[in-house]
Amino acid sequence: MHYISTRGGIQPIAFKDAVMMGLATDGGLLLPEAYPQVSRQQLEEWRSLSYQELAFHIISGFVDDIPPADLKDLINRSYATFSHPEITPVVKHDGVYILELFHGVTLAFKDVALQFLGNLFEYILAERNEQLNIIGATSGDTGSAAIHGVRGKKGINIFILHPHGKTSPVQALQMTTVTDANVHNIAVSGTFDDCQDIVKALFNDLEFKKKYSLGAVNSINWARVLAQVVYYFYAWLRVTDEDERKVSFSVPTGNFGDIFAGYVAKKMGLPIDKLLLATNENNILTRFVNDGDYSLSDVVSTASPSMDIQLASNFERYLFYLYNQDSARVRGAFTQLKEQGRITFSSEEMARVQADFASASVDQAQTLETIGSFNRETGYILDPHTAVGVRAALDLLPADIARVCLATAHPAKFGEAVEKATSAATPIPPGIAALHGKPTRCDLMDADLEQVKDFFIKHIV
């Protein structure tokens, strides 16, 4: 299995090289040359597998340069940190299935991928006797999950940029209370998109990237997406039996990474009826799916801050397929976005988009109302991001199919919003309660590339 760039400027590379490259050296995103195909017979054979066993079967189809025994060990160690034996259990409430992705160390879905990626990095670096300096941007959950995935690991430094004051208090504490020598938190006076622009600029400076051995943990790293593909298969196997029941997934998303993993699962042959893309007021992706309007606007702060994004990194991966793998068109689209602030699409392309996805935008009032009403009716507490997906599913997906809603974070990470919606305090897990009062370390900076670059160079150890 080899990997290519959406922008067509690199020769195909192996999986381990793709992991270490992160963002392709031509500025594009890496994708496999082909997708392993899964038959219905294989799906039936996988029904009795544990999450770890299923992950091995799926991931090994994309990896041929790590011995199977080593890959199994990496997977098993990655999910040994989870608090639930099923890793990503599925529960049913009020006619929808909730796929709980928050049983990892930071109580967010990012742990599913970043525990695996952290172990991958350590494995490859030890094999090559190299060092890696990770730099990433976060709207909240990626940063803490990445930090906890690599804290204390040999040969790795990590620098995480987050928008100052625009994450939840718990998200900020999960990052800034990690004071290991190899961990550095940077609070940027700006938005997540400002943070992401700085990170992309550093990766696009190829001389700087090579000199300082930059590595990526954002979902621009293919291994992140790959690890997330697994739980679509796992959930499908839990909500179906041997009949042909339809299954749709509702995915709260801002950066297009989580729903792109579902798109990959579908390309592999998983019989997904519909992928429902749910956004908050930062609804560039909903405008794209419903109206063909992919135009930039200002970021709005909401109760679901991990989705407060306008420029979706993983959208480029989908464009590559929408444009029939025409790298020149992908490059042209991002030139248009830079010059005009928008990308335009033909009616034929939009017909294909709407065959792949449905979409809905759920505002803050609807989000809080959904948290409250769902809790009153079921006793179950949704976090604000999950509530966006649940509301979209209840509004748009038919009740006679299996509606799987991705629960991307534990509600305690967004206690203020949940308490406002339910008029009751959210039970606090011990791991979150222990954060309060711990020493913190964080550096506040302007959204300035050179300032961040200077800090980075001075703090490499």
UniProtKB/TrEMBL annotation:
Q: Which Pfam families does the entry link to?
A: PALP, THR4_C, Thr_synth_N
Presence of keyword Transit peptide: no
Query: What InterPro entries does the record point to?
Result: Ser/Thr_deHydtase_PyrdxlP-BS, Thr_synth_N, Thr_synth_N_sf, Thr_synthase-like, Threonine_Synthase, TrpB-like_PALP, TrpB-like_PALP_sf
Using the record's annotation, list all stretches that form the Threonine synthase N-terminal domain. 2-79
Q: Report the coiled-coil segments.
A: none
Catalysed reaction per UniProt? O-phospho-L-homoserine + H2O = L-threonine + phosphate
Pathway assignment = Amino-acid biosynthesis; L-threonine biosynthesis; L-threonine from L-aspartate: step 5/5
Q: Which PROSITE patterns match?
A: DEHYDRATASE_SER_THR (PS00165)
What's the family? Belongs to the threonine synthase family.
Q: Which NCBIfam families match?
A: thrC (TIGR00260)
- Protein name, entry field: Threonine synthase
Upper lineage: Bacteria, Pseudomonadati, Thermodesulfobacteriota, Desulfuromonadia, Geobacterales
